[in-house]
Specification:
Blueprint: E1 4-7, H1 13-30, H2 41-54, E2 62-69, E3 72-81, E4 96-98, E5 103-104, H3 112-126, E6 132-137, H4 143-148, E7 151-160, E8 172-174, H5 180-197, H6 207-218, E9 225-229, E10 237-243, E11 258-266, H7 280-295, E12 300-306, H8 310-318, E13 322-330
Parallel strand pairs: 4-6, 11-12
Antiparallel strand pairs: 1-2, 2-3, 3-4, 3-5, 6-13, 7-12, 7-13, 8-9, 9-10, 10-11
């Protein structure tokens, strides 16, 4: 018989904090740099739970459900309605996302994860989610349940925690305002590849203007490095090395020395199966981003890459990156 599940309440926080601390420790055991547990992790978890379970003014809608057995909480699942990035059309509205700080106790029954998944899916669909996504850290015991519930990999998060101090490649330079049109042109090619891989990435009709505005804004942000390759009038590619965010890392983890590469495209990636020019230009951009991270004393880099973009995955694996987290999508 599956355990009972219900929405979490503020009264559950004292039981949830040690459960989520144990979960964070498991991730840290897989990679002590990428998943560094913060010195004040218990406080960060408690504060995040308090906001999630009591605040009526939150930037997005989130859901916490618990499983109970014998009067004790033996598992928790965390989900949210994921805002659609402005460059995508999102015709089906905000997807529902199950987050990686979902976990079960060591003594939980075998049916606990499936029961929690059912509770989260029901809550998300009741809130209007027509697309369901999951995220998990590789090696996680949840993957088997995701597979049986028809989730398939959509996006890989490939990480490297032994960043070397590459010299900035001579052909790569910092982006300027004058590079924005060229970046937008290459971004349009990037978006088309994404859509061809999976229609999940449906392109917004105003994507170019929206992306241009974001690039102009990004140039003013001091926490990131924007770099391009080739002359302004014929950019071959771009990369943005930026700080990690809480969307990918639960509150127990210290992300102050972790960087993320999401906006990253070069003409070498134009074919999803094979790299052009042996990926030389794309590799130069990657090394430039790594050099920028090292200069900022960042220890770990995480690159966002669609699961179907094999040429990009190959380049990253050859450069020492391994899959650290997977986002999957529920297929009909």
């Amino acid at each position: 018989m599956p355990p009972a599940t219900r929405p979490a309440t503020p009264q559950d926080i004292p039981q949830l904090v040690p459960l989520l601390m144990a979960d964070a420790a498991e991730r840290q055991a897989r990679d002590a740099i990428l998943w560094t547990v913060a010195a004040d992790a218990a406080t960060q978890i408690r504060d995040a739970l308090t906001v999630a379970l009591t605040s009526t003014n939150q930037p997005f809608r989130q859901f916490w459900h618990v499983a109970e057995e014998g009067g004790k909480i033996t598992g928790v699942i965390h989900a949210m309605l994921l805002p659609v990035p402005p460059i995508y059309a999102g015709p089906k509205g905000p997807p529902g996302l199950i987050l990686p700080d979902s976990c079960v106790a060591a003594n939980a029954s075998d049916a606990t994860i499936d029961a929690l998944m059912q509770a989260a899916e029901t809550a998300l669909q009741g809130a209007g989610a027509r697309i369901l996504l999951t995220s998990f850290v590789t090696g996680d015991r949840w993957q088997q349940v995701f597979d049986t519930r028809n989730y398939a990999p959509l996006t890989l998060y490939l990480a490297r925690t032994d960043l070397q101090g590459h010299n900035m490649p001579t052909q790569v330079r910092p982006a300027t305002d004058g590079d924005v049109p060229g970046i937008v042109t290459r971004s349009a090619e990037n978006r088309q590849v994404l859509f061809d891989i999976d229609p999940f990435w449906d392109i917004h009709p105003e994507a170019d203007s929206r992306f241009a505005a974001w690039m102009a804004r990004s140039l003013t942000l001091p926490d990131r490095d924007m770099m391009v390759l080739a002359p302004t009038d014929q950019l071959d590619g771009y990369v943005i090395a930026q700080p990690a965010s809480r969307l990918h890392f639960p509150p127990a983890h210290d992300i102050s020395r972790t960087g993320v590469i999401d906006d990253y495209f070069h003409v070498d990636f134009g074919e999803t199966e094979t790299l052009a020019q042996n990926g030389e230009g794309a590799t130069a951009l990657l090394h430039a981003a790594e050099a920028a991270f090292v200069a900022r004393d960042i220890q770990a880099a995480c690159v966002v890459c669609p699961a179907g973009w094999r040429s990009k995955i190959k380049l990253l694996r050859d450069a020492g990156y391994d899959t650290a987290m997977v986002w999957s999508i529920k297929r009909d």
